[in-house]
Design a protein that fits this description.
alpha+beta, 5 helices, single chain, two-stranded antiparallel ribbon
């Protein structure tokens, strides 16, 4: 899967036509608008109404996850990152071997599947810090 190159034309303030190359990946959409404002309106409208297929957090591009989760509130990072970092800051900063000792693989897999399913697993005092750090 490579990038496809399109030619686009833009008129400058003197009415002179110039061209530039635009790269688009397969499966992308390319919209042209008459102004930046019109393009921004289109994007806002699409973000509010378009269904974005989502197949989980793990194994996806970070940008896709962030865009998907923005539909449910303003976030700068995916929920899994936010929730795991919060837990590690509260309970794991003094843990010996943090990020060096792996968590239990079955528990890590269970956590990843829960986040992929759109759940928000709760971490309690019995949750292993290494397992959360391994997500």
């Amino acid at each position: 899967m490579g990038l496809t190159c399109f030619k686009s034309w833009k008129y400058d303030s003197r009415g002179q036509k110039g061209n530039r190359d635009v790269l688009a990946s397969p499966g992308s959409y390319f919209f042209l608008s008459n102004s930046c404002g019109q393009g921004d309106e289109w994007l806002q409208s699409l973000n509010k109404r378009a269904w974005i297929p989502f197949t989980g957090v793990f194994g996806q591009r970070l940008e896709e996850t962030v865009l998907y989760e923005r539909r449910y509130g303003a976030r700068s990072v995916p929920l899994v990152v936010e929730q795991c970092v919060h837990f590690i800051r509260e309970r794991g900063l003094h843990e010996v071997g943090l990020f060096r000792c792996p968590g239990q693989s079955t528990l890590v897999k269970d956590l990843q599947e829960a986040f992929d399913a759109g759940e928000r697993p709760s971490f309690d005092s019995g949750t292993d810090v290494h397992t959360v750090a391994s997500c």
